[in-house]
Design goal:
Strand content: 15-25%
Radius of gyration: 24 Å
Structural class: alpha/beta
CATH class of the largest domain: Alpha Beta
CATH topology of the largest domain: Metallo-beta-lactamase, Chain A
Shape: globular
Number of domains: 2
Helix content: 25-40%
Distance between the termini: 16 Å
Number of helices: 12
Largest sheet: 7 strands, mixed
Bound molecules: zinc ion
Amino acid sequence: MAKKKKLSFYLVDDDPVVLEAMAKLLKDAGNSVTISHKSAGILGDIARKKPDCVISDLMMPEVDGLQLCAAVRAHKALKNTKFIVVSAKAYEFDQKRSYEFGAHGYIRKPVNPDTFIDKIRRIFDDHIDMRFWGVRGTLPVSGPNALRYGGNTSCVTLEFPRQQFFVFDCGSGIKNLGDWLKAQNRKRVSFKIFISHPHWDHINAFPFFGPLYQQGNDVEVLGANQGDISMRQIVSAQMEGVYFPITLSEFAARVYFHDLEEQTLQVDGITVKTKLLSHPGKALGYRVEYNGRAVCYITDNEMFVETSDFYDPHYEKRLAEFVAGADALITDTTYTDEEYKTKEGWGHSCVSKVVNLADMAGVKNLYLFHHDPDQFDDDIDRKHETAMGMLKKRNSKTKCLAPREGQAFKV
Ligand SMILES: [Zn+2]
Ligand SMILES: [Zn+2]
């Protein structure tokens, strides 16, 4: 933000110490700043100055932060001005109300000099942070041949500027996600965990997700039921009796469950679409739409080759429609074409089918995912090269990536 373009800020806070501190941080980062100790009667001045952003406290006499936010957002001259609340109020209610009043961001006090500018930058960029915590399928792998891509099973996160936090699957990668959050001392986080399906590599590290043991966190688990077995039963059954020593009731976080079908729903103000996949049992793929962008998480999924008796062009057409134009398609590319010859009916796809899907659907970035545990790092490199070669041959605009554990992307 500051490096590219100097921005103008209008800061409103009745606490002069906080006001000066924020002004200094913003100025040091190269921005211009106007400050006001009061919120009453300043709308005209803000409208004249047309700042890129108003940063305001919530609890102020006469005109509170929400009223100021509503007035700024409703003013014609300020339609391009962002509004960020900086408040000591830690209640989720106040954050939610601020967003309802049109705020673009909510930062909790005390202002942390190490992260303040970065938080403002994130609100301005308005991108999705996508992180990979485990890219392998079926079984975690360890040892020298799994060092570059990592050895953990499926787990991907999407973080949005308004602090919505989506987790896809609870493979062993979720342990590192929990550790990463703990290192940042993140508290009172609301997680939405989307489960693709209940095979072990997608659910069995659920109880190793650290934030479950932290009071104040809120964890909703969403996924397809399996007929008469609910999502709650699916997750709790693996922790029952002889299998695991901790039960659902022992978590400190609030944990609740939501059964999904093939449907469209709003999750924390973000559109999420689901699609039943070609895999044993009921498996769901997800399409998340935010601010004109889309991320699709499609695993586990088998697209049968055209010569197979099970080839289903109707399914593939519908799947291509579902992922159409996605900015990111994260998808099951378990096998090479050669390996697939002996793995038909195992529920996973090979490279050429994935390339075909991504290219046909006009996907912008294809992320190869759910690698077979028998594949070494070098094998994944080769799979990646093969996929890139196939796309090149097709003159495709789709870019292909093989993400590694811990890697982050902006969407
Ligand atoms: Zn799997
Ligand atoms: Zn599976």
